[in-house]
Design goal:
By secondary structure, this protein is mostly helical. The chain has helices at residues 2-20, 22-51, 68-74, 77-110, 116-126, 129-139, 146-153, 168-192, 197-205, 210-221, 223-238, 242-247, 259-269, 274-298; strands at residues 54-55, 63-64.
Length: 310
């Protein structure tokens, strides 16, 4: 009985301490995630930074070489080519994916009674990348793929899609646009729900057309959501790997060897070189940080025009 009373008293005192110190309570809530972040992200990232200064083939002792690994990748034409291919993929992927996500979100917002469509559009995003890659590998097969069969039946010219250097990257972009546009559309749809309907009613009274309302009301007020969608999509596009590994494996003739596939090649395919691979990873990290900062600045991600109407 005494022990139970002391336990309740201890818990009460602990509760009082936590209620008096909100910051301590917040730290306790994020402690599990913080431990996971440090153990599985921060420590491996720091270790990778250290490895980038060593020559290490996993079979012998690592040898310190300083910035030699960075000099090697900067002098490697394959590295610059992989960056160019990655950028080309981003140019194909981001504008189309974002435009389609906005279009789908607006349609979902207008079709209020068709809520099942939201679940339908999210299904591709729920599929594993490996499954999506295999699915489109079969569908885009130049001989037996259903896409070429349909094109042939319509009297249209067929294409090698993943097997031609000119169409490989657009095809990879199309696969990932199909997979991610529904998820991004749901995010944009959620942003549309935050826009006051009275703004559209006032615009209708003033005689503004649908296009005028879209450019003057919808897009400006969606800026924080669109900034999040664009930033996360760009980061994901720079890290495209699994779809390429399943479908083209960097081919044909290196036409789909993106920066992440270049890193994979350095470790497992071309040669076992953890040093140059991690050096390329560090460079990719710096590129993503720079791109994210620039996007945050020029997209004004931290500012919302909705505050003016609250």
């Amino acid at each position: 009985m005494v022990a139970a009373t002391e336990e309740r008293g201890l818990l009460k005192r602990l509760g009082n301490v936590l209620s008096d110190n909100e910051s301590l309570l917040g730290y306790l809530f994020i402690l599990p995630s913080l431990i996971g972040f440090i153990a599985f992200f921060a420590v491996p990232a720091f270790r990778s930074l250290l490895i980038s200064f060593y020559e290490w083939n996993l079979l012998s002792d690592a040898q310190f070489v300083g910035f030699q690994n960075y000099n090697d990748i900067f002098a490697d034409e394959r590295f610059w080519r992989s960056l160019q291919i990655t950028l080309w993929y981003v140019i194909w992927n981001i504008p189309l994916q974002t435009a389609l996500a906005i279009f789908i979100a607006i349609m979902l917002d207008r079709l209020q009674n068709w809520s099942w469509l939201r679940g339908l559009f999210i299904i591709p995003w729920l599929l594993p990348n490996v499954v999506v890659g295999l699915l489109f590998l079969w569908m885009l097969d130049p001989s037996l793929g259903i896409v070429n069969v349909i094109l042939q039946a319509l009297g249209l010219p067929t294409s090698a899609f993943l097997g031609a250097t000119e169409t490989a990257i657009p095809s990879i972009a199309g696969i990932n646009i199909w997979r991610h546009m529904g998820y991004n559309a749901i995010l944009v749809f959620a942003g549309l729900k935050l826009i006051p309907k009275t703004l559209y009613e006032a615009a209708d009274i003033d005689g503004a057309s649908g296009w005028t309302q879209f450019w003057s009301i919808t897009l400006p007020l969606l800026r924080p959501v669109l900034a999040f969608v664009v930033i996360t999509s760009v980061i994901g596009s720079f890290q495209i790997f699994d779809t390429i590994a399943i479908t083209t494996q960097g081919g044909p003739a290196g036409a789909t060897r993106t920066i992440l596939y270049y890193i994979y090649d350095e470790v497992f395919a071309r040669r076992i070189s953890m040093g140059t691979a991690t050096a390329a990873s560090v460079v990719l990290f710096l590129i993503l940080v720079t791109v994210t900062i620039l996007q945050n600045r020029y997209l004004s991600a931290g500012r919302s025009d909705l505050a003016d109407y609250s």
